[in-house]
């Protein structure tokens, strides 16, 4: 019988040793037939392994090679395969499966994360109405995006054509669509309140109610305010923020992300949101003399006193609340931004 020394290739993980024995040169072997059964018998002897392994051995044979998997007694990284420092001539690394220790640890962590994710998903009860909810949110964000896009484009075109003259009739041109969008925006308070989206109710309430106060009370009840340039700046800043926010949420409903849009959604509000609040504050300040003069929305006191509380006092209090709301929302949005980009960075690594 011819004695052959096949090539052996090896690789490892923390808990296993992988061996690949090449047998392509094994041609002149003794083959016999006994009781109409073809018998093939082989025997090998190799070098002693560096550390202890479990007796159970898994193997799979093909016409060209034998793949062997041996489990280690301890989950440790071996410096070499054999106990002897000098590597046998027939032994070489299996570069198809070779990993460094750090790469093997990363592979192990990824497997554990995948197992944990599958385990969590199997325990979490699937929502039978998830598709319906996503469809509703997609349509809501699409309608809002179209509405604010119309406002933004309309105002931009009028600005280029009419110049500063477009400042003075903004309300009469845009107000109907803005009324619609801002009334619909009340859903952004209802959605988190009923658990449809996982965001805070308070920040959404502050923004939506604040905008509606400016739109319906300051601009809507005072005709003298409707022709002022501040209306243009308030509406323009609102629409500039929303034409990036709503498509971001719209794509999130279908598990799609555009990196540029994500960056714009979490970045462009940093200059625009304070400017919007500043424009709203200017509108409130400009409306105070008008409310004082017209006594509109003033609170009457008993006839014995013969006085009324001017609505302007409420507006002055509202200015304080407005900048407090700016602080609360700014802090909330910055946390959202930091969390978002921290998560993306961790996934990238």
Automatic annotation (TrEMBL):
PROSITE patterns named in the record: CS (PS51203)
Topology of this chain in the membrane: Multi-pass membrane protein
Annotated EC: 4.2.1.134
Pathway assigned in UniProt: Lipid metabolism; fatty acid biosynthesis
Domain (CS): residue spans on this chain: 3-82
TM helices/strands, residue ranges: 135-157, 177-197, 204-222, 234-254, 266-291, 311-334
GO molecular function: very-long-chain (3R)-3-hydroxyacyl-CoA dehydratase activity
Catalyzed chemical reaction(s): (3R)-hydroxyhexadecanoyl-CoA = (2E)-hexadecenoyl-CoA + H2O; a very-long-chain (3R)-3-hydroxyacyl-CoA = a very-long-chain (2E)-enoyl-CoA + H2O
Coiled coil spans: none
GO terms classed as biological process: fatty acid elongation; sphingolipid biosynthetic process; very long-chain fatty acid biosynthetic process
An example Gene Ontology CC term for this record: endoplasmic reticulum membrane
A Pfam family the protein falls into: PTPLA
Keywords, sorted A to Z: Endoplasmic reticulum, Fatty acid biosynthesis, Fatty acid metabolism, Lipid biosynthesis, Lipid metabolism, Lyase, Membrane, Transmembrane, Transmembrane helix
Leading EC class: lyase
Family: Belongs to the very long-chain fatty acids dehydratase HACD family.
Role this protein plays: Catalyzes the third of the four reactions of the long-chain fatty acids elongation cycle. This endoplasmic reticulum-bound enzymatic process, allows the addition of two carbons to the chain of long- and very long-chain fatty acids/VLCFAs per cycle. This enzyme catalyzes the dehydration of the 3-hydroxyacyl-CoA intermediate into trans-2,3-enoyl-CoA, within each cycle of fatty acid elongation. Thereby, it participates to the production of VLCFAs of different chain lengths that are involved in multiple biological processes as precursors of membrane lipids and lipid mediators.
Protein name (database record): Very-long-chain (3R)-3-hydroxyacyl-CoA dehydratase
Species for this entry: Cyprinus carpio (Common carp)
Designated gene of the protein: LOC109095338
